[in-house]
Amino acid sequence: MATAREAQPPVMLTSGASGRVNALFSPRLLKSLLMLVGAFLMLLVAPFRGRIFRFGSPSSSSPTAEKCRDEKQEKGGCGNGGGGGGGGIQRKKVPVVVRVPANVPWKSSSIVLAAVDQDVMLRRSIAIQRVVKSGDEKTGREFSFHVTPRGDTLFTQSWTPVFGDVIKGIVVIMHGLNEHSERYKKFAKLLNANGYKVYGIDWIGHGGSDGLHAYVHSLDDVVCDTKSFLKKTIADNPGLPCFCFGHSTGGAIILKCVLDPKIEACVSGIILTSPAIGVQPTHPILTMLAPVFSFLFPRYQLSAANKQGAAVSRDPKALAAKYSDPLVYTGSIRVRTGYELLRISAYLQQNLRRVRVPFLVLHGTVDGITDPLASQKLYDEASSSDKSIRLLEGLLHDILFEPEGEMIAKDIVDWLNLRV
Questions:
Q1: Which of 82, 166, 212, 304 lies in disulfide reach of 228, CB 3.0 to 4.6 Å?
Q2: Helical (H) or strand (E) element with 348
Q3: Phi, psi angles (nearest 5°) of residue 219
Q4: Is the Cβ–Cβ distance between 143 and 89 less than 8 Å?
Q5: Long-range pairs, 131-134, Cβ under 8 A, ≥24
Q6: pLDDT digits (tens, 9 = 90+) for 13-41
Q7: Domain range spanning residue 329?
Q8: Is residue 251 part of a domain?
Q9: What is the CATH number of the domain that holds 201?
């Protein structure tokens, strides 16, 4: 079997769940980040120089992050929309766009907002075009918009079987960090062929959804958005069993969702591929520094996290398709996004015993992005009576895009068919 380095041409690899998450807050960045902190503090103190000792230290107030509290947001059960809203299907033609910029010029607040809004419009137009132009006699494609409890607009899409037997279940797909739901269209069509209706959602900052590209201020917000979308989807498909599929960070999001008893009661099972539940910084002291840096420089991009050596697939064509996709973020990971990865991973590590839903977890043994041993720990500690794990020898991170991807996808369908 060829090695990952022999099987692919050199490409720019993205960070986060599609890049080397272990490079977050590495020691080599510590010096530069400390210099940034010093510069930031100098700017704060400069206006008060000469008066600071006379009048005392200037008072400061830190903004309180808006968190989605489950106990406040969730008042209904599985059949409640949970505050989310869906939009209609649009069939308007949109201009062709070639590439979405990965970086935003940080010059002033108005320029930043305008640049982000333009970026969102460009990404959304691409996402819409792909749905509108995807003619397929066996699959019905639609897109809509889901409004989050915070008022953000998320791009969603669905794949519905056109012919065949009655639909026997629904599958909700959660993509990984830096990618989007459209990447799983082949898997969705396979599910359609086996009688499942499929829904995909681009979470905040990804694909055709609102937000700075690949910036995640709070994965708790993403978890809340996912719960809201799940409730609406289940309400729109009464009587059908609901399954969730999550890749990498998407797997971590799904896991945290099903720790909520109300969501657990609605979901018949989950499938996790390369879940991000074992992310650790390179040095313990960085765990203490990460919250400080993420507060002071949330959008700062860690160039050292963009490694060339972390392959995600052994298939050169799959790599080329991924990194030429304008909806796939290939810039350096942002500080706040990296911190949120560390935070959700730490939370899950402490709560694996609370997992009770049926699940299948699949992980490549040579995954250099997320830790297959963390998937083994999930299997060992989870309280689920119906649980399965498959550690796939020699496979990398994006296992559905590996040469063995079709076989793995069929195994997932077989697992689903035994539970409907």
A1: 82
A2: helix 335-349
A3: -70, -20
A4: yes
A5: 131/157, 132/91, 132/93, 134/185
A6: 343 343 344 445 555 555 555 555 555 54
A7: 16-24+92-417
A8: yes
A9: 3.40.50.1820
